[in-house]
Amino acid sequence: MSISICTATSNDYYAVNSLVREEHEEHVMEEPAIFKSVESVMPESYFKDLLEEQNSHIFIAKNDELVVGFAIISIEHSPSFQSLVRRKYGYIHDFGVRKALQKQGVGGLLFTGCKEWAKAGGATSIELNVWEFNANAIAFYEHLGMKGISRKMSMNI
């Protein structure tokens, strides 16, 4: 297996959406009150906007010419509140690797690409959100050195 990490183009939309849909279906199964099954999880207009946005980047992982992973990252700034330290950080909005190729280094290569891109953009850290049910993703991010800093909670009423 020969994996390369590169920048997505508009031609990669359908391949990326297929990967997003694969991971989305797990979310539908685990949190059906929040997620629903749809054919196109990521709107094409959103994908194209991200490609044009200077502070955002879409990485893809290719095995030969087949897209097997993706990461969407942007440069963000903390709110300018007196009570908060001003920060510039990379925020990973979405991240996925084809299930059959997980735990083979593809995710690590994508994450390294995100980290290097964010650092080059002046970020001092990387943040992301991960769902509590996604134990594999939590373990993956912890293995890379990330740690939990907050928790979103919910209850049905």
TrEMBL record:
Residues 3-157 form the N-acetyltransferase domain. InterPro entries: AcTrfase_GNAT_prd (IPR017255), Acyl_CoA_acyltransferase (IPR016181), GNAT_dom (IPR000182). Pfam families: Acetyltransf_1. Keywords: Transferase. GO terms for molecular function: acyltransferase activity, transferring groups other than amino-acyl groups. SUPFAM superfamilies: Acyl-CoA N-acyltransferases (Nat). This is Acetyltransferase (GNAT) family protein.
